[in-house]
Amino acid sequence: MNLTILKLKANMLLASIGIFLLGFALIFAVVSYFYGLSFAPLVIVGILSFLIVLDIIQWLFGPYLINAMYKTVEVTPNDPTYGWVVDVVNEVAMYNRMSPPKVYIANVPFPNAFAYGSPIAGKRVAITLPLLKMLNKDELKAVLGHELGHLRHKDVQLLMAVGLIPALLFWIGYSLMFSGMFSEGGGRNNNAGALWLVGIALLVVSYLFQFFVLYLNRMREAYADVNAAETVPNGAENLERALAKITLSTDPRILEKYKKKNNNNIANMLFFSPIEVNEDIPETSVDELIEYWKHEKVSWFSDFFSDHPSSAKRIQLLEKLKYAFPA
């Protein structure tokens, strides 16, 4: 196995285990102190069960809400306009050795593609109209290789499970703070001041744990890039071009920023979609932007607040994968 991929897998495993162990150790210690060692598991299981039920409901019915928000329309192979998209999705699904997901077109004014689904809604992939107009078939296959990678790796389920940790910290913190506000008297289990302060501290810690979840999410996105490079012919090259086209369509002045060497890393953490998306991207601009990204020195905190790696990091990873999975 390629060393870059092996390192990525090891980091994902360690991050997942670390979040669970650190989170549960902190939760158990706090709950045991205030509620007693024998009663602590009941409190944790009770709150955790409530959160799991909420997560499952959201997971089961979320796809229908997504369809409503993105104004998606399901596409069939017989569709005279977009039937070819189903063929492309089926081809990429074949590369991934998985059953093809349902295909939807999203009528929204920005370029994007995303995979989603649930046991009752089935596996789905949606592509927005601007992205369809912007990419050629090979670039679209690479993007779909990334999206189907999320389905193949069960990223939604993993991130839902990991997300239970900050949610559990939040609800226990909220419960302690609420108990502190209304409790009376003294004693270890009835110390209003301590309950309130520890509750506030747990709310803060739950927020900090979100950064661990973001870190894991960025690695899952990188792993989906690996999937595109590994399963789709010439996937790394075409995913690079797709990323460049999407960026140029939403930030037409990005090349000027690079040329003036006035690139602001903080600005890169934010995403502002223009009123009109430029769907006609010159190939020379695509080549130029990719070349800048290849040689950009990216600081470790450039994507700290993002759920996706910075574009430069993604391109530099894809460059390494070209040698692992040659066209």
UniProtKB/TrEMBL annotation:
The keyword Hydrolase applies. One of its GO terms (molecular function) is metalloendopeptidase activity. It is an enzyme of class 3 (hydrolase). Pfam families: Peptidase_M48. Residues 83-321 form the Peptidase M48 domain. One of its GO terms (cellular component) is plasma membrane. Keywords: Cell membrane, Hydrolase, Membrane, Metal-binding, Metalloprotease, Protease, Transmembrane, Transmembrane helix, Zinc. The chain crosses the membrane at residues 12-35, 41-61, 158-182, 194-216. The active site is at E147. It is found in: Cell membrane. Its cofactor is Zn(2+). It comes from the Archaea. The keyword Cell membrane applies. Belongs to the peptidase M48B family. Gene3D superfamilies: Metalloproteases ('zincins'), catalytic domain. One of its GO terms (biological process) is proteolysis. It is a multi-pass membrane protein. Binds 1 zinc ion per subunit. Zn(2+) binds at H146, H150, E221. This is Protease HtpX homolog. Its EC number is 3.4.24.-.
